[in-house]
Amino acid sequence: METVVQVFGTKKSADTRKAQRFFQERRIKVHFCDLAERPASIGELKRFTQKFGVDAVIDRESKRFLDLGLRQALYGEERWLSILAAEPFILKQPLVRMQNKLCVGVNEKLWKEWLT
Fold it and tell me: Are 96 and 28 in contact (CB under 8 A)?
């Protein structure tokens, strides 16, 4: 069975490009999900929030997060999921999934473990 890695991010994100390059250099097929063209589904986001918590996937430093005035927002997980699905630019990038393994952000050490 061919190993495929899903990378969720945007073309403008240097970290997303870094993740794609990491796997491509190791001849791992990358399925790139461009969040600018097609936001992640709530179900897909839920995988990451169930493992890491909703705070771990929100980029509180992103320009979009600040533009939306969410700094003081105290929402429950369901509300955050719908905001994240609608506003992919406030997600930490990249979100990486390989089978049942998940990662938020760049973590080459962890990715190497996945491949051994």
Answer: no
pLDDT in tens, 77-104: 999 999 999 999 999 999 999 999 999 9
pLDDT digits (tens, 9 = 90+) for 53-78: 999 999 999 999 999 999 888 899 99
As a whole number of angstroms, the distance between CA 103 and CA 113 comes to: 12
Quickly count: other Cβ atoms within 10 Å of residue 4's Cβ. Answer: 13
30 three-class SS: strand
Q: For the chain, percent helix, then strand, then coil, each to nearest 5?
A: 45, 20, 35
Q: How many whole angstroms separate alpha carbon 6 and alpha carbon 3?
A: 10
Whether pTM > 0.85 for this model: the answer is: yes
Distance CA 56, CA 2 (A): 29
